[in-house]
Amino acid sequence: MFKIILIFFFSIHILLGQYSSYVNPFIGTGGHGHTFPGPTTPNGMVQLSPDTRLEGWDGCSGYHYSDSLIYGFSHTHLSGTGIPDYCDILLMPGSEIIHDNITADEIKTISVFNKKTEKSKVGLYEVFLEDPKIKVRLTATPRTGIHEYLFPKVNNNWILIDLKHRDKIIHAGFSKIEKNEITGYRISTGWAKEQHIYFSLKCSSDIDHVIYSKDSLKAICIFKNIKNKKLVIQCGISSVDEMGARNNLAVEWLNFNFNLAYKNCNNLWNDALSRIQVNDNRVEKKEQIIIFYTALYHTLIHPSLFQDCDNRYRGMDQRIRMGSAEFPRYTVFSLWDTYRAAHPLYQLVYPEMNLKFAKTFLSQFSENGRLPVWELAGNETFCMIGNHSIPVLVNAYLNQKNPGLLNKKEILKAIESTFEKNYSNINSFQKGYISMKDASESVSKTIENS
Question: What is the pTM assigned to this prediction?
Answer without folding.
Answer: 0.94
